[in-house]
Amino acid sequence: MKRMKKIIIRGGRPLSGEVTVNGAKNSIVALMPAAILADAPVILGGVPDILDVRSLIEILESMGSVVKFENNVLVIDSSKLKSIPMLNGKINSLRASYYLMGALLSKFGEVVVGLPGGCNLGPRPIDLHVKGFEALGARVFHEKEVVCLQTGPEGLKGNHIFMDTVSVGATINIILAAVKATGKTVIENAAREPEIIDVATLLNNMGAKIRGAGTNEIHIEGVEQLSEARHFLIPDRIEAGTYLAMAAAVGEGVTVKNVLYEHLESYLLKLEEMNVKVTISENSIFVPAQGKLKTINVKTSPYPGLATDLQQPMTSLLLKSHGKAELVDMIYEGRIGHVSELQKMGANISIDKNKIVIEAPNKLKGTEVFASDLRAGASLVIAGLMADGVTTIRNAKFILRGYDRMIEKLTQLGADISLIEMDNEEPKIEERGKQWLTI
User: Fold this and answer.
1) Residues with catalytic roles
2) Residue pair 259/235 in contact by the 8 Å Cβ criterion
C-alpha cells in the first residue's frame, strides 16, 4: 500500500541556533553515475541522506553494483555492473536518472532507459543530451518513453560540440560520455555551475583528463580506464539558500554552516538588496533578526546568475517585504506551482504572463497546501513558518527528495514541525521533531 506523507507546521515560532548544510543534492545525483565508470570502489563523503540518493542506490544495485551507505559516506563498487534495460520503476521517478545515459553509454557502448520523471514540472527535454551523444558517434533511437543509445564497433569518438542552450544536465552528460571516448572533446557554451566542477573533480581523481570545468569551454582527453577514488562533495548551495531565506523570514539569530560564499554570491547580493543583514565568515553565514525588508525584482539565469532552484524560496521571503515585487524564472517558466498554494494562505501573489507578481507585506494564515515539486515544497515550508496557525503540506515526498533531515534541523532551530506518514489518509506515525514520527 502506498504511504502518504505530510508536513505539519505550527507557525509563528522564531528560529535561532545553528544549522549545517549537507553535500550538494545536484552534485550527488551526477556523481553516483560518474562513479560507475570505475571498475573499482569509489568513496563519496558528505552525501545527503535524501530520497533521490536512495532511489539511485536501488537502481545501481539492480544493475549489479555493490553499494554501502552509512553516516553520509557512500561506497560504490561497480566492478560487476551489467548493462540491463531499465524501462520503468525508479528510473522513471528520478529526474537525474538521465545521467545514467552518458555513463552507461561510455562504459558499455549501449543503454536502454525509460525517460526520467521527478517533480511535477513536466519531462525535461533531452534534445541537447541527444545532440551531444550523436556528435560523439552514438546512434540514438527514441520511441515514446524509451531511449536507446548505441555506439558503433569503434566506440565513441571525441568531437567539437557547441551547446545551443546553456544546460547543466546536458553538459554533465556529455562529459560522462566523453571521458572514455577516443581523442579529444571540446564543449563550447558549457554550463558553469559548481556541481559541474564537482563532477569533473571526481572524474579527474579517477584518472580522467578534463580541463576548463567551471568555464564555458571544457576540454576532455579520452582515457581507456578509470580507477578508484575518494571525493568529498561540495556544500549544497540551494539548501544553504533555503535556510538563509528561513532565517531572514523568521529568525532571531541563525548561523548556517558549511557554506561556500562564492557559490551563493548572486543570491546574497539579492538578499542585500532586500536589506537582509548577514555576517559572512570563512565557511558560515550568520543571519541576525531582521528589520523592514525591501521588495526587489528577481530574474533567474544560468550560473553565476541567480539559481532557478532559489526562485521559490525567495518568493516566500518576498511576501514579508514592503512594496511590489516581480519574479521571472528564465530557466523554468513552469516553476509556478507554489503560487496558487501561497494564495490559499492569504498571499497577495499572482501570475502575469511569465512573471510572478507580489504585493507585500502579507499576513499568512495556516491551511492545507500541496507541494507540486521539490523547491515549491521548500517555499511552502518557509511560508508555514511565517504563517499564523497550522499549515499542512501534502505530498511531502518531494521535499524529502532534496533536503536531508529538514524536520530535525528545523526542530533544533525552534520550529514546531512534524512529518506524518499515513495509509489512506489515516495517520500512522507521528513524533515531533524527527524525520519519521510514531503514534
Assistant:
1) 119
2) yes
